[in-house]
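Worked example 2:
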Amino acid sequence: MLDIRCTVDFVLGTSRMPLLDCLLLAPQAIVPLAQAAGSDLSVVVHGVTIASGEVVILDDKTALRISRVAPPIGIDAA
């Protein structure tokens, strides 16, 4: 079971907007995000945030340094 592949999303930020604004999105549009500049990215697996971290450059590639791992669902953080 440990070799099952999961889709992992790295979320920079989120926003809410009316449908009309979504339909009017075009190149060069700026969408404000709820998160502050410099905030950690969220690591999301199947809709569940499991960790967060900061963007780093590793051998000319973008990577994520994990700074926090969420406890399993149903277990309180110590």
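Residues 19-23 form the longest helix (5 residues). Helices lie at 19-23.
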